[in-house]
Amino acid sequence: MSTAPQDPAQGFNQSPFPPPPAGPPMGPPMGPPNQPPMGPPMGPPNQMPNQPPAGPPPQRSAGASKKAIREKRAPSIPGLLGALIVIAIALYGVYIAYEGIVPMTHNRSGDAAQIVIGVVLVIVALFLRSAFTVVQPGQTKVLQFLGNYVGTIRATGLRMTYPFTSKRQVSVKVRNFETREIKVNDSQGNPVIIAAIIVWQVKDTAQSVFQVEYYEQFVQVQSEAALRHIATIHPYDNGEEGEATLRGATDQVARELAYEVGERVAIAGVEIIETRISSLSYAPEIASAMLQRQQAQAVIAARSKIVAGAVDIVQAALDRIDRQGVVSMDDSRKADMVANLLVVLCSDTPATPTINTGS
Length: 359
Hints:
Layout: H1 8-14, H2 62-65, E1 77-78, H3 79-105, H4 112-127, E2 132-135, E3 139-145, E4 148-153, E5 157-160, E6 166-171, E7 175-178, E8 182-185, E9 191-202, H5 205-210, H6 215-232, H7 250-265, E10 270-282, H8 284-324, H9 331-346
Antiparallel strand pairs: 1-5, 2-5, 3-4, 3-6, 7-9, 8-9, 9-10
Helix pairs in contact: 3-4, 6-7, 8-9
């Protein structure tokens, strides 16, 4: 009994290995069929080599997939022009309705469709009243329609925009506030009390409304956080050579504070215009000790300057005496003269002259 030839495609589907080639093999033999595979296992039997391991896919953060909202201009027209359009629609609707009702007063059939159109136009004109809004100077209106951001109106005066939109007023005036006096340790570990004045302005109204909750409070909290960080990376005073201190480099500290606050509040659409340190002092528990140290440093600096000046005066006096030949002195007499002059010049109290009459 003969067997029908098998289809090559059907045979390939039934066997996991392709049929052997017709000619001699090209290359070295592949080894016995039961030889274990070379290399590490490739994973489960039903998994492809390049397929990622089984398991739940990695979770993406919500903030990464959320598109940031940016301010855009909301379509609007001058309110006077819009009022004329609404009045025209209302008058036209009344006219059409009247034309449909007049035949009925003469016992004739009126046009019901004309009456309906006129009534609809009047109702539309009444609904369009919600499209009007007044924008004060220095203010904006953020529009939302059914929860979606429509745009922002920055043009002042009476404006007409989309009807049935909620309108939230956002100020774009320049504002400022002073932070609380906060206690923080400087870079040397000394507790200091510091406060700052922050001048800011809303730059992107959409971010201010939709990106953060209560953007005014957000700016205040982030400003205090930035002020704490700036105070911790600078010494109050007596820093190393070339190191900026809170008391000595106020302009540099103010610039650093403005940059850091601006980076923190950028997500809220706020622009930092200026920052200034308004209050700076040591904490009460170390204020007296730090005052004594400052006084001692001031006294040392003053004494050093006095001694340097006295030495210059004595040197000038000796050079002039030798140059003019006023008197001839040996080294011992010069030493006595130098000592007396230094005592007179460096003393806190006026010197008392003493006359030596000899013995």
